[in-house]
């Protein structure tokens, strides 16, 4: 008789099964009954920890991204210039989006359109706050370095993330390093510097 998994072993099994189902069949195929069966646990265990399959999918995908390159919010983007920091941050953000994959990112659109969309709205608000925190750190360093003087609005702080997310969701074209550089040089930096007048 197989030993029932517990603790980290169980969590890793649940995450692995969730990611595998998503990769093979799409997010619509992810449900607690199937994950419980394939990971060797019960639906009760899953319901106790995650309010919905979407919440579980989110944690499973984030776990993989964090294993590969750590948490974006903890990263140090110290290149010595505002432009360099923005390029470094958006390159890391792009890699995280690539790891999470279009299937998951497009699942967000499907979840937002549901009547009961509390989980995804909570998640998006958490992402927004994390993104603001990341940009505030970068812009604070730029102020200390004398590159900018004035504060920047939240709309401009969120602009790089929202533009990349839009491209990732709506286009099948890959996000290249050239695209990131063009985004920084032609959109983000001009928007930041426009608020320094």
From TrEMBL:
Residues 8-68 form the HTH tetR-type domain. Gene3D superfamilies: Homeodomain-like, Tetracycline Repressor, domain 2. Keywords: DNA-binding, Transcription, Transcription regulation. It holds the Pfam family TetR_N. Residues 31-50 bind DNA. This is TetR/AcrR family transcriptional regulator. It comes from Weissella fermenti.
